[in-house]
Amino acid sequence: MQYVKNIYTKLIALAPFALLGACSEDFLERPPKDAIVDAGFYQTDDQVLASTALLYSKVWFDYNDKASYNLGDFRAGTAFSAWNDRGNVLFNTTGNTPENGSAWRSFFIVVGQSNLAIQNIRKYAGVSVSEGVKKHAMAEARFMRALAYRFLVMNWGAVPVIENNLTLLSDTTVQRNTPKSVWKFITSEMRQIAEDLPEKPVRVGRLTKWSAEGMLARFYLTRSGVEANASGQRNQVFLDSAKYYADRVITLSGASLLPKYGNLFLYPYDNNAESLFSLQWVYSPGAWGTQNSTPAYLAYGPDIANGDGWGGDKGATWWVMQQYEGIKTVSETVLQGRTVDQRLKATFMLPGASYPEITQTIPGGSQKLVFPFVGTDNNFIAIKKYITGKAVDVGGQAAQQNYGHDTYMMRLAEMYLTYAEAVLGNNASTTDSKALQYFNQVHTRAGLSPVTGALTFDQLFKERIVEFAMEGMAWYDLVSLHYYNPTKAYAILNAQDRGFFFTKPDRFPDPTSWTFTKTAWATAERKIDANSGNFLLPIPSAELSQAPNLQKPAVDYQRK
User: Where is the RagB/SusD domain (predicted)?
Assistant: First the structure.
């Protein structure tokens, strides 16, 4: 990662990469103007690799900033915000919801800048640039574009596929493409990308063949539902392909699960043995957009942050707490039990829990963090994942809205669970020994007993929820389910409780158990109504006004 991160300073000095204002008028009507186009820059292997470095960060900034957890977790019900972001929490995301627009904008920034990178490398790469590096850099750009389209099609359904922004100057007929044809396009792309990327990263933090094959496993598992038959049976060919690629990544990539789940989020965790692809953020004072700003909005208060810590109203939902083994439902209004699943403490902070890696400011000094118990009827279970603390906790590499640790986009754990689900396929359960083995490698790492006998979809779904909570994954698991079983997806969402509840430890600090009680006065806005009319996001209103072709009927994408 050091190469990817250190090159930012050089790139910013060489050419502006100001993308924050880019939207549909940039990528649906004309090519972006604010990218590196100087022919003299593409004369060496290092320069060509440097030209794609910002595809690992800045182009994703508007998504990572707030939209990632608003769409990926708030809409999915794994977390909620009491006072802010209520449209996403209550499943009332509209065309004017800020995170809707910023996500759309970010994904098309990725598409547009990836397209431009491909065109520039083809046009400007000098004779001294090796064919291998040209192929690698273009594969990086194609990978980012394909992944952006995966987000676009899963959030908005039919979207326009754009491979060359320059052609839009003379083409006024561009319109949305059908979801099936988008999925076909990005899967075909990723297969070629896997052939063009090396097995070992050319620089720390760069994509590899295994990043692409991991994405193929993810794409094929979802596409099996996209191509389900009228009875909701997933496409077996695509299930087999998901199984094939997941197993290859597990057995051939050299990646490995970290022994302790919590270490995945302890600084410095960047580019560890489990990471298959991460956004490469860097602590970068004075260079807005290459840093990780998300912790500013998730940290519960300024006593553990760097002049920010605006997440005091954000935390775990009642529903997600029920997904953790060791937390059991006792009655309609009370949950209690001793925490067993080690992922809970690494993801959410319960009152009295200690985190020695984070410094907490207290009256008269500081201490290692003990999450407070305020004794009110809406004591939040705060967010811990991706919170690494103050500058003193991270070698000075943190300031307000400026953090340097990376965002996981794909971890090896996903491959183990993907393999198991692909084997389960259209069956009610599976006793396949390898599927159970792979499932249990993720499950037992959390300090839990192995599952024996049969493995069901509900077990796999719950495992994915607790493994990837607050990683922006849960919503896309629900979308994948919705492709072939919308009734079940709605049922999961509509059974959730997203309201206030009180969390009381049995002792403070170092509790051994907690009691959870629904807040008596908070009787409204506890449930949502997910249905076929509101499941997909509406195209942002600003985009529709600037690109009216987005309102035309979708057509299949035909590659020219």
Answer: 292-552
Task: Answer whether 326's CB lies under 8 Å from 337's CB.
Answer: yes
Q: What are phi and psi of 493, to 5 degrees?
A: -65, -45
Quote the CA–CA distance of 414 and 473 in Å, as a whole number.
10
For 394, other C-beta atoms within 10 Å of its C-beta total 19
Amino acid at 296: A
Beta partners for residue 177, in sequence order? 159, 555
Q: Are 99 and 71 in contact (CB under 8 A)?
A: yes
Q: What does the DSSP assignment read for 72-101? A: IIITTTSEEESSSSHHHHTT---TT-HHHH
Phi/psi for 328 (5° steps) reads -120, 150
Q: How far is CA 372 from CA 294, 339, 508, in A?
A: 22, 18, 9
Q: Give the C-alpha separation, 519 to 337, whole Å.
A: 18
Q: Residue 410 has what DSSP assignment?
A: E
Task: Provide the terminal-to-terminal Cα distance of the chain, rounded to the nearest Å.
Answer: 36
Q: How far apart (Å, rounded) are the C-alpha atoms in residues 305 and 386? A: 12
Q: Which two tokens stand for residue 385?
A: 């994942």
pLDDT band at 334 (very low <50, low <70, confident <90, very high): confident
Helix (H, G, I), strand (E, B) or coil at 233: coil
Predicted confidence at residue 399, as pLDDT, reads: 97
CA angle at 407 for the pair 413 and 391, rounded to the nearest 5°: 125
pTM greater than 0.90 (yes/no): yes
Nearest to 26, CA basis, from 149, 103, 112: 112
**Calpha distance 393→405 (Å, rounded):** 12
| pLDDT tens profile 405-425 | 999 999 999 999 999 999 999
Exposure string over 474-500, b if 16+ CB within 10 A, otherwise e: bbbbbbbbbbbbbebbbebbeebbbbb
Phi, psi of 123 (to 5 degrees): -85, -40
State how far the Cα of 430 lies from the Cα of 436, in Å rounded to an integer.
8
Instruction: Count CA atoms within 13 Å of residue 288 on its CB side.
Output: 8
Q: Give the model confidence (pLDDT) of 511-523 as tens digits.
A: 988 889 999 999 9
32 touches 113 (CB < 8 A): yes
- Give kind and range of the element (H or E) at residue 223: helix 209-226
Burial of 261 (0-12, 13-18, 19+ CB in 10 A): buried
- Residue 505 · residue 381 · CB < 8 Å: no
Run of H or E residues at 140: helix 131-156
* β-bridge partners, 329: 335
